[in-house]
## 1
Amino acid sequence: MVNFNGAILETASNFLNENQRGLRFGDILFEELRVMNGNLVFWEEHYFRLMASMRILRMEIPTVFTMEYLESEILKTIEQNNVLNNSALITFAVFRNFSQSLLPKTNQVSWFISCQALTSSFYTIDEEPYEVELFKDFLVNQDMLTNLNTNNKTIAVTASIFAEENGYADSIVLNTSKHVVGTTQGAIFLAKDKVIKTPPLSSGVKNEVIRTKIIEIIERSEDITLIEEAISPFELQKADELFAVNIALGIVPISKYRKKTYQNEMGRKILAKLDAQARMTSLK
């Protein structure tokens, strides 16, 4: 079941068509969040990120878009999908209403909420080998639009296909300065000794809540130093650990890049703290 502007529809319903601006012009925003045992995880942070993204794209924010209203609509959606007491990945999409031209006749928006059940109520580490390679065909721009979660996924999709065709689990994407941005799964973190580096938002990284939460956990750790700065591909083989982050999986440990294999000690500790924090916020 999908929630379209507050109405619960069958997933196969044709509630969107070829005139939808998200399809025609990429004029759409997404916010993905996780539900644990029927409770929204880091909901306040997700809500304010969505509002900030809408303002950046000059979308009109409906007066009903309060934190309480959207939370109730998400909960209504997961209840209709029979995952109220389980875990799920929620996608909240918002887009400007129909216009045949690039210049919209209105800034008013429509929205929908979809729900995908997850197998685990907890953040867990996948122990399967996860080898990656650089994707060099296309480069990520370094601007504020790249920080937003829109439907412009061309580079990520192409990089994923490149990885599959060449026997890799994932690809590492680069920006126009030939610095590391992340994998197709999300932002990347590089650990060496007691220092963890991650690219700054100015590198073209998605400004996602899960990235912020991981950074907060690292900054609170007394024995780890966090550095946000550009990462050269040459640094990857010098690292002790590499991992990507996304809202569905938490931490995705990278096991191999070219001739270098990686540990997963820090990533495991950080994930345990993330899981504990997620459980606490979901109980509020």
## 2
Amino acid sequence: MISASVQRDTRIFDIEQYGDTIVLAPTVNLRESDYEGIEEGARDIFELLDSSPFRNIVLDFSRTDFYGSTALGFFLKLWKRARKQDGQLVFCNLSDYEREIMQIARLDQLWSICSSRSEALQAVQE
């Protein structure tokens, strides 16, 4: 098992580090009405990413069941950041609804979707 060496909290994300991988776990549904909270959380995360050597990003949705288009824009920014570092963006623990959004937007063809955090952490190491 990989152990976390750093834990941080933003208003809407729990953050853990596993080597060169950062795990972001939304603590609330990322609804459009929470636009300001999502933007504030995104700023905090990008500040952390800009000051660290993280290559890979795992988004763990084990505590949520919904996200909106603002969140999708945030995911695209995270993906671009990971690619710039020769890393990957991987999703895990998506609800049926969250998975359906990925499929409709065809983002499931762009990003890996795993059923568990351990599977996602393994996927970014391959």
